[in-house]
Design brief:
The protein is built from eight helices and ten strands. By secondary structure, the protein is an alpha+beta fold. Strand 4 and strand 5 form a beta hairpin. The protein is globular and about 50 Å long.
């Protein structure tokens, strides 16, 4: 994996253990970290939690675990994304590019383009291929949260807390399904085959900014 990343123009720092990874991160200050969940000395999530005590660099977790709670735990702990093994190198490289672009932007851009969908956060205006899209306040707030984390997974709990605030996130997943369905009918080219708002099963949703090839 490391040699393949180098072949794509990345300078890679390798660490065999979690402790070594933390030392490398603190002394070499990399632009992004890819952390394997299973390490000889520490759990990858523990490395992530310790890294997040002092660093905000993008982090992608690698895991063979399919359990939804593990993915949610990684995101809640501060991971920017995750990739489940086995995976294709193209998928990992794409996630790396998105994470680096997101980090490079720094402050959130007031206008976000998602493949013909334009979201003007400053003016609360949404257009699809230049045509205004009428959204309800909840639909807009939901889209705004996804846009603020464009390219990244937003967990169901995060969405519920940010959009509905006082709602019990453990008993309100159906609200998300209903409103995501409404949004897809208004912003997808084909709501039955959505590509802008992607479901991450059991975890949450991701707003994709580039049309599939």
């Amino acid at each position: 994996m490391h040699l393949a990343l180098k072949g794509h123009g990345y300078q890679v720092l390798e660490a065999e253990t979690g402790e070594q990874a933390l030392i490398e991160a603190s002394t070499k200050r990399p632009d992004l970290a890819v952390i394997d969940w299973g390490l000889p000395d520490l759990e990858g999530i523990d490395v992530l939690l310790r890294l997040r005590e002092w660093s905000r660099i993008p982090v992608i977790m690698l895991t063979v675990r399919d359990a939804e709670q593990d993915k949610i735990a990684a995101l809640d702990a501060g991971a920017d994304d995750y990739v489940v093994k086995p995976f294709g190198m193209g998928e990992l490289l794409a996630r790396i590019r998105v994470a680096l672009r997101h980090a490079a932007k720094g402050d959130l851009e007031p206008v976000i383009d998602a493949g013909g969908l334009t979201i003007n956060l400053a003016e609360r205006r949404v257009e699809l291929y230049g045509t205004p899209v009428r959204l309800t306040p909840i639909e807009y707030d939901l889209l705004k949260v996804l846009a603020q984390h464009a390219g990244k997974v937003v967990t169901q709990r995060q969405l519920l807390r940010q959009v509905w605030r006082d709602i019990d996130p453990d008993n309100a997943a159906h609200y998300l399904r209903v409103y995501i369905g409404h949004l897809r009918k208004k912003i997808e080219d084909d709501a039955t085959r959505p590509w802008r708002i992607i479901t991450e099963p059991g975890v949450g949703y991701r707003l994709v900014t580039e049309a599939p090839q």
